[in-house]
Structure formats: C-alpha cells, structure tokens
Amino acid sequence: MLWLFVLAIAVVVICVRHLLESWNFPPGPPRFPVIGSLLSIEKYGSHLILQATKLIPQYPKMVGFFAGRMRVVIINDFDLAKKVAFSDTFSGRLIGMYTETMRGYNRNIGVISTQGQIWRHNRRFSLSTLKEFGFGNKGMWSIIAEEAAIIVTDLKTKWDGQDFVVNQTFNISVLNILWKIVSGKRYHPDDPEMKELMRVLALVFKSAYIEEVFPILQYTKFTQEWYGHSQKQLLTQTFKSMFEQVIREHEQKLHTKESPRDFIDVYLEAKKGNDLFTKEDLIGICMDFFEAGGETVGSTLSWVLLYMALHPEVQKKCRQEIFNCLGVREPTMNDRGTVPYTEATIMEIQRCSSVAPSGLEHKALEDTELDGYTIKKDTLLFYNINSFFLDRDYWGDPENFRPERFLNDDGSKTLKYERFIPFGFGKRVCMGESLAKAELFIFTIMILQNLRIKISANHAKPDPGQYEAGITRSPLPFHVTLEAI
C-alpha cells in the first residue's frame, strides 16, 4: 500500500504546484496539471499566434497557455505589446535544448538567441560592422539588384509561357546579399546542396520550440522522427561545420590582407586579445545571418507572386507606374516615393501575409506584473502582430486586399501606421529591417519589370489560406504562369 500513499502524495504535490503556477496567470483556455493547455492548443509554432487571434473576443488583451512545461502569454493588445517590446525585463530569450545544446555550444550563441551583455555586445558589433560594408545604405543597392537580376533572368529565360511552382524560389538569392558581405561568398539559386539546406531549414522553422514544450520527445527514435529531430541535428551540424571551415579559411588568409575584406575578417581582428569575441559566437552570428537572411524576405517574395497572380488589376497598375517612373532601368532606394502605389502594394502584401505573425519570443528575466497579472521569471511572451494586422477597428476592412489603404487621398504618398510592424518593434526589433525593405522594394520592381504573373489554367488557384506556419508563415507551394515582358 506504500506505493498508493506515494502516488497520492505525488498527485497532491502536482495539483498544488499547478494551482500556484495558475494563480493570477493571464486568462486562457483550460489548463490542467501535467498536460497544461494541450487539449486546447490546435498546433504549435505560429499556429498558436493565429489561434490566439481567433480567441480575441474571449481574451481581448492577452491569452495565457501552459505549453507543456512552458508558460506562454500571447499579447493581443497593442499598448501592452509596446510595453513588453520596449522593456528590459522582457528582453530575454528561451534557453533550451535546441538553442543551447544542438545549435549552441552548451550556451546560446550569436545575436538572435542570446540575452543580456552577450546579446547587446554581439548585436552592436554586428550592426556597426555591417554598416561599414554598406549594410542599409547605397553600398547594398547594387548587390541586391545583381542578385535580383540573376534570379529574374533565370525565370524569364527558362519559364516564359510555362507553369512554374513557387516554392522557396527566392530564398537563396536573398541569402546571397547578406552572405556576400559576411563571408565574401555566394551560392547559385539552383545549387542542389543549398536547396536541400533551405528545405531542412524550413523544417526547423516549422517545428520550432517543440522539443522545449515536450522534452520527452527527444528520447525515443519514433518521436524524434515525428518532429524532425535528426534533420534538425544534421542541419545544425552541417551549418557549424560549414562556418568553421569558412572561418578557418579566413584565419589562414587574414595575415596576407592589407585590410579586412568582409565581416568575418573584422570579427577575427577584433577577437585578438578580447574575451568578449569568441569563435563560438562568430559561428552563431553566421548562423543567424544564414537562417534569417533568406527566410523572411524569401517567403514574402513568394507571397508577392501569389497576390500578384490573384490581383491582376493591382499588378497592372504597379507595372504601369514602374514603367512611367523608372522605365526598364534597375531601381535603387532613391526611387522610393516615385512609385507610391507599388510601395503601398508591397506594404499590403506584408500586412495580408503576416510572414512573422509574432516575431521571436520575449522571455521574462524576473518575476513581474503585466496589466495586473503575475508574469513569472522565464515566462515566454509573444506580441500578436497578426492580430494588429487584422484589427477591424483599426483597418476597417482588414480581410480585403487593398493597397490604397497605405496611400494618402490623392495617391501621391504612402502613409505610416503605428500598427504596421512587419519587422517587430522595440529593443529586439529585427536588425535587418532596413536591408529587408530594400530587398523587397528592388526585387518586387525587377520582377514586375520583367514578368507577368498569372493564375495557371492547369493547376489550382493559389490560396492565401494554404500556408505553413512555424516561426514564419509561408505559402504552401503553388503554381503560376510566367510571361516574359
């Protein structure tokens, strides 16, 4: 009978602990001991954010989940989101098996996954060094246009008059832009090895956080295969090996160079005699650039093709404006303001596609309060960008694709909206925002200068409701017909 007594004590302890953790926690779907909100959660990843959007009538300001062992709060109220985004208290990152062990070196590395002094140092150094190589200014425009020209010419010559499947079409091209100034290297858009890495990377984005929610999944072969553990492991090992090799090549050549040639050179120079610079963090920063460099903008460009196919009248109007103002020459960022309808269309595509429905997590670094609720240390908070983009009181008709909402009355200027934050905001705003804006602007214009995008007569019509949502939200592969101009 002793085992019954022990079991009863264990049940009581679990229930009491659950009650204590639930006390004054933000409201949400039913939460139970051990399994938490499992019965109420439809899917993980960004699907949880999209689910929170549906729950706004019940939980207008915030909604709380117990996701396995993690406490998660989704912020639906914009003013509360600003408080979270600009607070040092909520500037932490998840430290878990994937970020610390698989991706890291028994600690989180780089910029995206770190917090505190390491994060501030790595971010500050990365931004200042990238700016020296033209990041976010004129020096990048020609690199962006060069990569756009390569992929657009390839599409134009190979797929004119044919059906084309859009599936991570632009990811490698977009990645090349940043990777060129980081390492001096680029990859061909059709490189099979790089295509496979991008495919597995998409899987990693899709299954983000799953092993942190349910750690037990790591320990059986069946469950590992179910959520792609082995592929995640292979990807991180491949990335680490690849970057270690690139860094070794730079180390061997560094003494022969008169001045640093790229980001890695500058980092290695700064590393001499300074313990704040480590090879592990350099690998982490390279992984950050590689992972984030192509995924978000690449996915947005896939959405550009989808919405242009679905709205030929918008596509025609954009192209007419582009030819009237630019003709066939390559665009630069100096052309901003001369093609307001095209810029408004890009913004509307970003709003409708909601590629980053919440951005990455903000972890509470200490016990605190938010809007009267108790937020314990290590709670993960996400602000619901998707809900900001679909707020009927703010946008009027958010379900409609209408670029004009971003234009003034006479259509001569684009408008700024506080709640239009496709790159997030606050202390952990995307550090590649200026580059991403330039990439979207130049790529979109060059696509429309050279290609007509039509709905395929031989395949299903592209459907914005068919998407994959992990860390980012990208359309499932779809067909369009391309016509060269």
Automatic annotation (TrEMBL):
SUPFAM superfamilies: Cytochrome P450. Heme binds at C430. The lineage of its organism: Eukaryota, Metazoa, Ecdysozoa, Arthropoda, Crustacea. One of its GO terms (cellular component) is endoplasmic reticulum membrane. It is found in: Endoplasmic reticulum membrane; Microsome membrane. This is Cytochrome P450 CYP3040A1. PANTHER family: CYTOCHROME P450 15A1 (PTHR24300:SF376), CYTOCHROME P450 508A4-RELATED (PTHR24300). Belongs to the cytochrome P450 family. It comes from Tigriopus japonicus (Copepod). Its cofactor is heme. Pfam families: p450 (PF00067). The keyword Membrane applies. Residues 1-22 form the signal peptide. One of its GO terms (biological process) is organic acid metabolic process. PROSITE patterns: CYTOCHROME_P450. It is a peripheral membrane protein. The gene is CYP3040A1. The keyword Signal applies. May be involved in the metabolism of insect hormones and in the breakdown of synthetic insecticides.
